[in-house]
């Protein structure tokens, strides 16, 4: 069906000169806006050779920053995958008053400025904050430490898993699960053997989006972390620090590495997306 | 407003969709373009409308060559297969679209739309949107929209293809009526032989991008000029035979039966095409003139019975209209004699089994 | 008795799931928002008002708003055109380019900023060339627009593309057979069909641009009354331990996000207005 549609579309496409002008305009805009900067950074980074690139990446602050990004991303994946699935299940299957509003709230992290998000957590978890007070009294640091940065990243990536799993779960319906119950499977067995396999590609896509965003998050993490070198500095914060210190070589090198990682994630994302569309 | 289609060719890449097609539609005629799916009939219609440009050939509307004219300027009405109604406009706006383009006054648009809504019997649905209508109602909106520009030529692409059998029957009769009432020239594309036979003045049978036969329903059904036409329009039995000295002998029967000779038959293999209703079934017969057969199954079809029978392994389909005596007469596994009242003969370039299989594959016969 | 036990078990499970969700959304979304709004209005509406309408904050807000507006206009045109070309035409490398459209979503915003500096900064090839001719891009307003154009590029494309793909080309042909010229067909048939998707993409990119921080922080130079946008202003206030000053614009940006979400939901209802009611 899809194939024959493609054929019709191809057959019906106009052959006027306008077509080529439009393709030309769109492609040049795309290349100038999004591709040229990629070439720009590669040129600037490697114009004085590999040595600076390697040395600026191997200094301890830089290594620590990338490791911290890794741990935050890992924590985010674990927490948000579990809660994302729970959230999707509740939003699809449960009914309660105010559910629509609740659903709207789930999208909020997409719309809120990361700086404002970080600020909200400072008000809440800061040393003098509403909840932070309580933790402070028990010698537990949240803001300007790992937990706060994790919470900020959890916030900005919260909707991804749920938003991808909800439609799949809706389409999946109740019948297969009911069939499993009738065949004697327990709720837990049904979840692992029937529900999970059918949502796995939607879930995988949501998780890839979560990874991409956690690695790239800057504003929220900057505000809650204080960006302390070798302590609370993630890769993106490190790039920012190097840039504001006019250490361009260091900023460019780290940026190239992050860009490369994002490119790999993008490719994975596209593959997962294709699988999601197929199965 | 006659239409002349002259030597039209169109290919898409390697695929030849339309191969040197010519035919003529006289003013006031309702013509069916009939053929299996993928035979190029829709492409021909789209070429007439100007939605496709032919690689070669010409189109004349009322004597004027319009081959290179843009669709906007041909002033034709076109009803799309899936109606192509504007989803963001209600019934009224959909119908008014073509008139608004002509920059007519508001009062004129209003009165015209009102008339058309009455014509297609959609009073009370003026403010409904396409998604809120049934299939038949959408079809009627599409017709009204095509007629709104006061076109004298109406082109319809599988107009009833997406409708239920009952709605389809009503609408096709109704199309026939208002075609006459409005005095327009219409061409419609269909793959449904019954539809074509029921409502058209003339049928153009298309096969693999070529015109196979042109004629009215009776001519095409009773005097098909090819095996393809015979088997595509109506049911047909394919019987292998051989000609010797002007006599036809049916192959595969327990003894070779003589059938009345037809003029100018050369010696050699031929096929006979026999319509099910042209076979007379008898209890007793003459071994030299009638075919011995065994009834395999009897299907009840409401106003008639369909009988499958075997002639030495070869399957034939027969039709017997209900008569009071029928029930007593025939039973499964009964021996009967068949007599071909009338049949058509064709050269057997392809063996019967081969042809039979091919017809089955393409869905011309069951 | 047995039935009651079962009923309670189902209830219990449902209750656990529900409370988990409420806890999660509560601690991460609802509670922080309440805290921010409460803090903002604690000192009275008057002081909040003064906060927002301080010249520097107001300038930052206006700069954010107008750069976002310019971006939206450009994005609507370029995004619709890109979606159109991707759906309707065939050309070499189309699949690769189609995949690369998502690149701005995948690249961290700070990296985007760095990339733009590496290309348009005063020390780079293009930047130096333009600088000699008196055109400043980095550390100036055009840089801000360029940065938000980059990070929002996929929004309009990705919302319009599926609608365009599903759109029946018959509809446009029908308009042609009814005598409508190509521009007329585009305006009266194509655009109305795409409009909800275009507006959705526009709202998403507008919202993103209003809150954008990372790329602008690198690219803009952040000079008050010249290139300081709202999010950077908030960050600046927080840096100088002036939470009070940061509250005003934070509340404004937060409400702006609310409005966009409401607008998107209304848009969805509106685009389904002609559908049969179930």
Largest interface: A-C, 85 and 83 residues
Number of strand elements of chain B: 20
Low-confidence stretches of chain B: none
* Biggest sheet architecture of chain B: 6 strands, mixed
Strand order within the widest beta sheet of chain B: 6-7-8-3-9-10
CATH architectural designation of the largest domain in chain B? 3-Layer(aba) Sandwich
Distance between the termini of chain B: 40 Å
The ordered H/E elements of chain B are EEEHEEEHHHEHEHEEHHEEEEEEEEHEEH
Count of domains of chain A: 2
Distance between the termini of chain A: 17 Å
The percentage helix of chain B is 25-40%
Query: What is the domain total for the residues of chain B?
Result: 2
Q: Name the beta content range of chain A.
A: under 5%
> What do we call the CATH topology of the largest domain in chain B?
Rossmann fold
The profile of the biggest β sheet of chain A is: none
Global structural class of chain B? alpha+beta
Describe this structure in words.
The complex is a heterotrimer of chains A (279), B (366) and C (278). With 279 residues, chain A is mainly alpha-helical. Chain A has two domains: 1-47; 49-278, MetI-like fold, CATH 1.10.3720.10. Chain A contains 14 helices and no strands. The model of chain A is unreliable at 1-13 (pLDDT under 50). Chain B has two domains: 3-227, P-loop containing nucleotide triphosphate hydrolases (Rossmann fold), CATH 3.40.50; 236-361, Beta Barrel (OB fold (Dihydrolipoamide Acetyltransferase, E2P)). In chain B, a hairpin with a 2-residue loop joins strand 17 (304-311) and strand 18 (314-321). The mean pLDDT of chain B is 85. Chain B has 366 residues and is of the alpha+beta class. Chain B is built from ten helices and 20 strands. Chain C has 278 residues and is mainly α. The mean pLDDT of chain C is 90. Chains in contact: A-C, B-C.
